[in-house]
Specification:
The chain is α+β, with helices and mostly antiparallel strands. The chain has a seven-stranded antiparallel sheet with strand order 7-6-8-4-3-5-9. The protein has a two-stranded antiparallel ribbon with strand order 1-2.
Length: about 300
């Protein structure tokens, strides 16, 4: 077939990303991620039933506190409007934006191919332990994001926040109740005492609203306003030990075509940076505003 007929449009995400010889779409990872093991885990009957029990328990408590209406609004907001937002350093963002052939890779893959230096031995071991404890060999292919209602990310992980298109990630993603490091530590996973992940803290993309109710129900009050939902779902002050969010686990990577919006954490635009650095960041802020205006 003549090369001028390429690239072709992906049947899954409708991006024109498929170059001659490609085995999968660089935006949505179809068909490579079609049988996402993460989604299979989240669909296990024990997982679904345990989540439903936690959800129903949270709903009963919310009804007892006369918060049912607020809870219904919150669940609907999360189910219909929350998206996967990845926080990344400016350098990562610039690499993705500069070349659509650049793929967002995991720490393990980058270290294993010699594309980056490993973290300190203990940190390196912890990162790999968390991935394998939760997902086994599949852990090396998992990218993580935060569930967000307004496109804001977790500032302690990077100053640029990119929103991924649902059509590119929803079918291959699941949602964990909290940061995976905290989850593994909280439940003693990987130890001799507890070796299996507890059920009820994991949800498919379509059930993320139920998981949000199970986790955040106690934060909802009868007078909670819709504007407050943003901070209840994702709270960040720039310190990882105080961050609170639901973590999206995405099986496979993505390129620039999967990103539908981005913005910059303006709290990190400070006077300690040189003029050149500030100009680069200010340009990103302007481009982000223009990008969102073009898509609206």
């Amino acid at each position: 077939m003549p090369e001028e007929l390429w690239p072709k449009t992906c049947d899954c995400c409708r991006r024109k990303t498929l170059a001659l010889g490609d085995a999968f779409c660089s935006a949505c990872w179809d068909p490579w991620a079609k049988l996402s093991p993460l989604v299979q885990f989240a669909r296990e009957p024990q997982e679904v039933e345990a989540l439903l029990r936690r959800y129903e328990g949270a709903v009963d408590e919310l009804q007892r506190r006369s918060c049912q209406h607020v809870a219904e609004q919150f669940e609907e907001s999360v189910s219909a409007g929350s998206q996967a937002v990845i926080s990344m350093p400016v350098a990562f963002f610039q690499d993705l934006k500069a070349d659509k052939r650049t793929l967002y890779a995991t720490y393990s893959l980058l270290v294993d191919i010699g594309a980056r230096k490993p973290a300190r031995p203990q940190d390196d071991a912890n990162r790999r332990l968390v991935d394998t404890t939760l997902w086994g060999q599949s852990g090396q292919y998992v990218r993580t994001a935060a569930l967000s209602l307004d496109g804001s990310g977790v500032s302690s992980y990077g100053e640029v926040w990119v929103t991924l298109d649902d059509i590119c990630v929803a079918y291959r993603s699941i949602v964990l109740e909290e940061n995976s490091f905290d989850f593994v530590e909280r439940h003693g996973l990987g130890s001799e005492r507890i070796k299996t992940r507890p059920y009820g803290y994991l949800a498919t993309w379509i059930d993320r609203g139920k998981l949000a109710i199970a986790k955040c129900g106690l934060d909802l009050k009868a007078d909670t306003k819709e504007n407050d939902f943003i901070g209840i779902l994702l709270f960040t002050e720039g310190q990882r030990n105080t961050d609170r969010f639901l973590e999206v686990h995405i099986y496979g990577g993505f390129n620039w075509d999967a990103i539908i919006a981005y913005k910059f954490d303006e709290k990190k635009l400070n006077a300690s940076w040189g003029d050149k650095k500030k100009q680069e960041i200010e340009m990103i802020v302007v481009e982000a505003a223009r990008s969102q205006a073009d898509r609206s």
